[in-house]
Amino acid sequence: MPQAKIYYDTDADLGLLNGKTIVFLGFGNQGSAQAQNLRDTGIPNEQIIIANRVDSYAETAKAKGFNVEHDFGKAAAVADVLFILIPDQVQPRVFNEQFSPVMKPSAVIVVASGYNVFFNLLKFQPTQDVVMVAPRMIGSSVRSLYEKGRGFPCFVSVEQDGTGTGLASALALSRAIGATKAGAIASSVREETAMDLMAEQALWPNIIMMFREAFNVLKNAGCSDEALCYEMWMSKEPAEIFERAADDGFIAQLKHHSTVSQYGQLSGSLKLGGEAMREHFKDILYNQILNGKFTKEFSKIEDDLEKEGLDNPLNELYRRSEEIELVQAEKRVRARLAGLL
Predict the structure, then answer these.
(1) pLDDT, tens digit, for every residue of 218-247?
(2) Which domain of life is it from (predicted)?
(3) Adjacent-strand bridge partners of 160
(4) What is the mean pLDDT of residues 19-48?
(5) How is 10-28 classified by DSSP, letter by letter?
(6) Given a cut of 80, is residue 26 above it in pLDDT?
(7) What is the rounded CA–CA span in Å between residue 187 and residue 241?
(8) Average per-residue pLDDT in the chain?
(9) DSSP letters along 283-299, please?
(10) In the chain, where do the E strands start and end?
């Protein structure tokens, strides 16, 4: 496989954004961070519009000095660039009904998640540019790293080059939000979606399951709730391990552990062949994610996610998950140590 191209500040021309009206649909975690970064890069405030319904996010945007438009049709009509930064499940309804019909044929549409573009859930005009600028950080880190003069990891791609200048626009916008300072990695909505959903539907479910079952075995062996909760996650040691892995290397970080720990982890992991897990992951990737099976399943419950109580399927999943012993034990520990946490 060829190495991915990485784009830096020198590859991007901010001049392409001169005079462009840039609309941010949503002012949540990412919208707030990216809009502020873009303004601090030098894009005049009068060129930036925050399209947001009447809520606390809109009030926050106003408090930060942004121009807020509650009429999505008006915002869509003047947008030369549109950042779509509302949740995946509501994007098709909001964009297709209120933005797409009135947007300029030459508009640049920016997504931060590949999901809706990969599964063809958004309606674009063939002359528009559709690009992905996807920070691999939560919004607060996108903002704080920018303020520190540092970059953050980001994926960038052109999914529809309607004007013929899609890549140049994508890079200019990436630089404007601070993404090319550390290097924006050439990617695609297929790649981003596959990796994102794979982590969500295969990697982390298995990690949760392994913690759950290890907890049960140790609890049955006589370990206390307090000892288990702190040893396994409440001490924040797993977070420190992942931070070391990001800084030093996935395996190299083991050198910060005791010799007993190093030997146990290395020898234990090499004994686990992983063939069954690999096949499990492949099955999820090809027969659940990339073939659209999960998307069809999720689309059936999208409207229910707005409901209250257990009529919301997400709330029902939380209810069932809260019944497991690991969660119950954690509640007992937190209640007992409330004054110390």
Answers:
(1) 999 999 999 999 999 999 999 999 999 999
(2) Eukaryota
(3) 130
(4) 97
(5) GG--GGGGTT--EEEE--S
(6) yes
(7) 27
(8) 95
(9) HHIIIIITTSHHHHHHH
(10) 6-7, 22-25, 48-51, 67-69, 81-84, 108-111, 129-135, 154-161, 184-186
Measure the CA–CA gap between 177 and 135, rounded to whole angstroms.
10
Find how far residue 195's CA is from the centre of its chain: 11
The strand pair at 6-7 and 184-186 is best described as antiparallel
Contact 150, 140 (CB under 8 A): no
Residue owning tokens 């052109």: 158
Q: Is the pLDDT of residue 258 over 70?
A: yes
In this predicted structure, what is the pLDDT of residue 1? 59
Looking at the predicted structure, is the pLDDT value of residue 118 above 80?
yes
Which amino acid is it at 238?
P
Burial class from Cβ neighbours inside 10 Å (0-12, 13-18, 19+) for residue 201 reads: middle
CA 292 to chain centre: 19
- Looking at residue 255, its amino acid is K
β-sheet bridge partners, residue 129: 108, 161
Diameter of the chain measured on Cα atoms: 68
Q: Which residues are registered as beta bridge partners of 186?
A: 156
Structure tokens at 179: 């993404």
3-state secondary structure at position 176:
helix
pLDDT above 60 (res 341):
no
| Cα 189-305-122 angle, rounded to 5 deg | 30
